[in-house]
Amino acid sequence: MSSQMFLVALSFAYFAKALSGSYMKSTITQLERRFDIPSYLIGVIDGSFEIGNLLVIAFVSYFGAKLHRPKIIAVGCVLMSIGTFIIALPHFIIGRYEFETSARRIVNSTLNVSPCAVGSSADLTQGGKLPEVPATGCEGESNLSMWIYVLLGNVLRGIGETPVQPLGISYIDDFTTEENAALYVGCVQTISVVGPVFGYLLGSLCAKIYVDIGFVKMETITITPADARWVGAWWLGYLIAGVITLLSAIPFWFLPRSLNVKHLPTGVGCPLTVIYPPADFFPTLRTLLGHPVYLTYLCVTIIQLNSLIGMVTYKPKYIEQHFRQSASKANFLMGVINIPAVALGMFSGGLLMKRLKLNIMGAARFAFGTSLIGYVLSLFFFAMSCENAKVAGVTLSYNSVDRISYDKHPVFTACNSDCFCSASDWDPVCGENGITYVSPCLAGCTDSAGSGKNTVFSNCSCVGVAGNFTASTGQCPHKDDCDRMFPYFLALSVITSFIISLGGTPGYMLLIRNDYSNFSGQRLHSLTLQLMSGIPAPIYFGAIIDSTCLKWGQKRCGGIGACRIYNTTSYRIAYLGLTLSLRTISFIICIPGFILLSRQLKKEEENAINKALANGGTELEALRKEEFIISNSDQMSDNSTDRETRL
């Protein structure tokens, strides 16, 4: 009964940690906008989880099995919960979210404001910006960036997550029968796949809700969830995830240190957490890295995982920016479509491997083949493009609004020369001519009517439509081409995710079934993947994405904030190109890997044959001796009979 209780508790803990981890992935754009940071810093925050994991993995691996494992897991769940609460903490200490807008500086007025302030471009600085005026409240603002709390909270989450998997699985292995152990581990792994689905769905729900819901009048908010400045209630999901993780710790406090193991058959009860003593670490490491097949496998999986982590981390952002979908919809699609396709692919891969009875070489070929098919299909993503948004002064010239160009365009021109505008603000409006302008001021609008999302700007000299010079809040949709292409993108995304995941289980079996399939080899593999894939991949993927930004936001107290609009063509090429380039490198490394694996298997087969022949020769010699003895015995018996007959 206690083993079943432990199974339920461990499954819940797996669900909680998977939910909070996937929710972190779903909030990257919300965190970028809320803390006005670039994508590469989001990558640092995302990778900090692995850093926390690595800080204590050696301690957990060496001492975990010697201590009270359920209580160690309980402590880990509590730490994960505290870390999750710390991530949400900045929301409660930095005040209300103030998105940048060109109209917010006009105060002491109850009338509709004029976006085009009286002045001229001569009043601007040489860089085309308004003279620097410190924002209210900046003097007392801490120099410590609030995103540091998010990073520290994620590190603590990584520390807390460390004992859950190794100690939980070893506890099952130690105190259940061999048949039940396999079943229990399968149940736990299944639950861990369900967690990300709910994590992304929670991210979708929270992204719909405005960040300061309950503290502001929503009718005064001029932006929608599709706006590049929109920030959802990211903190709410972390509070929910923190509570769930805290609840998952409770059962472990009441579970025993060990269970009755008298009924277990011989061989069951070998803890998975035993590692080599520190003195044996470097000799073991040298032996493993000196194994050519193991080293090749390690290199291939590191590169493949870099590609996978970078792609998954920024896929919701890619859907948002490239296909102009809201963060809520992007997260919903990840949770409902992509994650189930991956889970089904991994399960089907294991089933096919069992049905086809694949050996090591068969598993390697199967994993390589599915990865190669997914790679070829992924090339079609390059053709699924959307035209960049038409933004005057960014992707279009004011003098030529029919042709998109990524040259440096001035935002000041004759039509807004009488306005006292800032070039750094991002408060887009959609003109009646179908062109987006960076702000109503830069559109030359002199009057406005209405409030909130229903504000309409009029007398916009840059719009230039005969008889109608109005503009509305927000970017122009221009989604016709994207709406037609998006379903094909989703369908191809599901197919490629499923096919690539088919090779996941057979690929992992290469590590398990080979002659380096001891705990040390598996642990080194896991640690290396965390260190060389989990930490760096989100950072350099984010840095490359940042390089495609066309218009950076402005922080409230000065400085560059989050990106507002990207060059979608460059974004697509950089994101997909880096993902597929890494996989190309891994395929090239696979070629010598197959040769080495083939030689190793051939050598093992020859050794097995020689051993069998040697054993067979020994047995044949023994058989011959036995036949000789029997023959002599029969001959002596015949001689005795002849003598008796003669007598």
Automatic annotation (TrEMBL):
The gene name on file is LOC118298917
Cellular component terms (Gene Ontology): basolateral plasma membrane
Q: Which InterPro entries match?
A: Kazal_dom, Kazal_dom_sf, MFS_trans_sf, OATP
Q: Catalyses which reaction? A: 3,3',5'-triiodo-L-thyronine(out) = 3,3',5'-triiodo-L-thyronine(in); L-thyroxine sulfate(out) = L-thyroxine sulfate(in); L-thyroxine(out) = L-thyroxine(in)
| The name this protein goes by in its record | Solute carrier organic anion transporter family member
The organism's lineage? Eukaryota, Metazoa, Chordata, Craniata, Vertebrata
Residue ranges of the Kazal-like domain? Answer: 409-464
Where, subcellularly, is it found?
Answer: Cell membrane
Origin superkingdom: Eukaryota
- Membrane topology summary: Multi-pass membrane protein
Family per UniProt?
Belongs to the organo anion transporter (TC 2.A.60) family.
Signal peptide residues on this chain, from the entry's feature table: 1-20
Presence of the UniProt keyword Transmembrane helix in the record: yes
Which GO molecular function terms does the record list?
Answer: sodium-independent organic anion transmembrane transporter activity
Organism, scientific name: Scophthalmus maximus (Turbot)
Q: Name one GO biological process term.
A: lipid transport
